[in-house]
Amino acid sequence: MCLRVDEFPPIYVAALAILAGDALGNFHVFFDLRLAVLLAVFATILFCVARPMAGLIAAFLAIAAAATVPVYHLLAPDLSPAGLHRFADDSTITLEGTIARAPERAGAGRVYLFVDAVRGADTNLAPLSGSVRITVLEPEHLRIGDRVRATARIRLPRNDGNPGEFDYRAYLYREGVAATMFVGNQSRSASIAVTGHRNQFPGSQIEAVRDRIGAFIDANLAGPERAEMRALIIGDRGGIDEKLRERFALTGMAHLLVISGLHLGFVAASAFFLMRLVMGFFPSLMARGYANKAAAAAAALAACAYASIAGHHVSTVRALVMVLSYALAILFDRAREVTASLALAALVICVALPGSTADIGFRARMQNRTRTSPPNGAPASSRSRSGRCWERRRLRPITSTSSR
C-alpha cells in the first residue's frame, strides 16, 4: 500500500478517536480514565521502539477511552448535597439564582429562563448549584443578570416516551439543564419575582445590542415579516406562530428559522468578499499573499459577532466552530485541506460539547460537509503520496514497454 497506517495524519486519528469515544459514551459505554492513561503510556513505548502502527492503534484506543469520561459526567446526575437531585421529583421548592443566558421566547407566550441556582430548598434555603430552565408565561421584561426567586414544582430530566424514542433526558443534559420548573399565570403555588440585578460581562452588553436591533426591527416592520426578521437576525423565534411555522415546514425550509451553518456561512462569506475588495486598494499586501488571510480574519470576526447576537444555541455554536476552523486553515495556508479543517471542527465540538454525536444536527452537518468536500480536500502530503503512487502504477507499463 502506498499510504501506510502509520502515515495517517494525526489530526484524523485524534478526531476519529474522539468521535468514537463520544458515541460510545452516548450508548452508555464508559471507560475508566486510568485505562486511557495506561494505553497512552503503552502507545508511547511502542513509538519509542519503532512500532508506529501498533502505537497508532494504542493511541487511538487511549483517546477513545478518555473521550467517554466527559460524556459520563454529562449524563450522570449530580448527587452531591448541593445538587438539584437531592429534591424529590415533582416536589415544590423555592430557589434563588441568576439568569445566566438571554431569555428565550418559545412561542405561545412562553419564555425560557436559564437560571444558575445559588440557594434553594423546600423549607429553609441552603446552598445549591446547577442550571434550571424555568418556563414562564407572559413574564415582565427579564434580563441577563437578574436575580430571581421562584417557587414551583421541580422536574428532573426524564424520558416519558417509549424506549428508542427521542432521548429528552440526554438532550437537557447536553443543553446544560439539570432540572426544569414551570410558572403559570393561574397557578397559586408557583410564582417568580426579581429580587435584584447585576450586570454580567459580556452577556449584558450583548443583550443590550440585541434589544436595540429588535427595537429597530419592530419600528420598521410589521406582521410576519417582523417575526421572520427577528428570528433570522437575533434568533428570537417567539413571534413565529404555528401557522407560519407550518408553512415553513411544508415547504421544507423550517431550518431557516434556526440560526445555524447556513446563516453564519452567508455572513462569513459576505465579510470575506468585502474584505477582499478592500484589500484590492493595497496591491503591496495582496502581492505578499495577505489578501485571503485578512479576509479570513474578517469573516471570523463577523461570524463571532453574529453568533453572539443570535443567542446561545448549540446549533449556532457548532456552526461557529466550523467557520472558525476553516478560517484558521486559511490563515495557516491550509485552505485546500478541507477534510483536515473538518476533523479539527469535529474534535473541538466534541471536546467543548460532550455528547454531540447523539445530536442529529451534528451528524447531519458532518455528513453533508463530508459529501461536499472537494476531491482535493485531503492533506497535501497525502495527495502527493497517493498521486506519486498512482503515477507509478500508470507509468510502469509504459516504462517496461519502452525498455523492451
Which class best fits the helix and strand makeup? Answer: alpha+beta
Strand order of the largest sheet: 1-3-5-7-6
Count of alpha and pi helical runs? 14
Helix content class: 40-55%
Q: How much strand?
A: 5-15%
> Can you tell me the number of structural domains?
4
Blueprint (SSEs and pairs):
Elements: H1 10-26, H2 33-48, H3 52-75, E1 92-99, E2 104-107, E3 110-121, E4 126-127, E5 131-137, E6 146-155, H4 168-174, E7 179-183, E8 191-197, H5 203-220, H6 224-233, H7 242-250, H8 261-279, H9 283-287, H10 291-310, H11 314-331, H12 338-352, H13 360-372, H14 380-403
Helix pairs in contact: 1-3, 1-12, 2-3, 5-6, 8-10, 8-11, 10-11, 11-12
Structure report:
This protein has 404 residues and is an alpha+beta fold. The protein has 4 domains: 5-75; 84-199, Nucleic acid-binding proteins (OB fold (Dihydrolipoamide Acetyltransferase, E2P), Beta Barrel); 205-254, no CATH class; 257-382, no CATH class. It is 53% helix and 14% strand. The protein is built from 14 helices and 8 strands. The protein has a 5-stranded mixed beta barrel with strand order 1-3-5-7-6. A hairpin with a 2-residue loop joins strand 2 (104-107) and strand 3 (110-121). Helix 1 runs parallel beside helix 12 (338-352), helix 8 packs antiparallel against helix 10 and helix 10 packs antiparallel against helix 11 (314-331). The protein starts with 9 loop residues before the first helix and ends with a helix.
